[in-house]
Input
Amino acid sequence: MSVVEVLFGLLGLMALGSALLVVTTRHLVHAALWLVVTLGSIAGCYLLLSAEFVAWVQVLIYVGAVVVLLLFGLMLTRAPIGASNELDSSLGQRLAAAITAGATAAVLVTSVVDAFHGDHIDLSDDSTVRAAGSSHSVGEAVFRSWVLPFEVLSLLLLAALVGAIVLSRRDISPEVVAEPGHTGEVGR
Amino acid sequence: MPLLMPVLLATLLFSIGIYGVLARRNAILVLMSVELMLNGVNLNFVAFDVYLRDSLLSGQVFTLFLITVAAAEIGLGLAIVLLVFRNRESAQLDELRDLREDDEEAVIS
Output
């Protein structure tokens, strides 16, 4: 076993353990913080797979932005600080969820093991592998082969931005739009 | 490195995400579990990109796209959760039952 494999195994165990804590912990804020550990270990896995640009994007966007957004959401919905029994469904539903997840895992693991056992990712030290994940080659791929999907993605981001603003503004009320002749109070 | 290592890790992350989506009541915790599932998929993309040595780097580029889509999804999802919280004073998913049939009618029919 090489150093990369050992490190990948450790990072993978870390990611799985903290992911389990994310879905089982009784502290809301702890769940968000364990999510940071999971996402960080996955970024480490990307680094070990020689995809460095994706790894840093993962750190910047997931750990930096998404988790902070989730923490904001927790604060704005007045999340209980400290342990709470309100976070999980009833025991029966949790059991059903565990069975569903276990069945999914069993099906996927058996099919994946059957399909790919014995296959190896070649991470030898030659320069072509190392260069494939660098920001230079990823940038070239994005702006050369994938430039149209990239532009569509920027439209999607714009739509999401507008949608989020429309949803969270208080001064746009549906009555004003529904009754154009009505000149009563505008908004609340 | 065996291809199975990253692929199995991705599979297990996905299953943990499924458990979280089904077992949690709080809407924000459900969003977190969705993030776990998306990360499993991302890891799969990167692993197969490196394994297949794709010359267009489709796996890594799609991972970048997916990360962006996930960020947009989280932004919109949180906006909706906040709107629900503002109207209902609660972010518990099992209290949102307005579209559900009444119990009595369900029993009769």
Summary: The mean pLDDT of chain B is 89. Helices of chain B lie at 4-23, 27-52, 58-88, 103-108.
